[in-house]
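Friendly challenge for the regulars: who can give me the structure tokens for this chain first? No prize, just bragging rights.
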Amino acid sequence: MGDKLPIELKGLFKSFMFGALLCIAIGGVIYYSGLQETLLAPLGKLTLVITVFYAGCYASKSYGNKGLIRGITMGVLYFILLIIASLIFQASPIDLTSFFVNLAICAGAGVFGGILGIGLSDN
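First reply, four minutes later:
Bragging rights claimed.
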């Protein structure tokens, strides 16, 4: 069944799992070390960049072409899923500034991941 899923869904699933592992690791480091909890917001943005970059890289490497398009597609798909999760789990309204900042982060990281994925592809 896993072979019949589109590359995009596989990439999103793998990047979400990678992101969850990063969040657990970052949370453990913050909890058990003397680091300030104020580092959580920047580390969260860094985790977002890394996971979207990975998703864009995975998709364009798998296809071997159109890295910019595939990367930005993965970034926007990732962003849409984040917005849906925010609407479900967050009680406060979404801030318009953070909305556009996160959209730019997702699109930019996806594009750069897509470009790198083309360079790593065998095609």
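The chain has a mean pLDDT of 90. The radius of gyration is 15 Å. Your move, everyone else.
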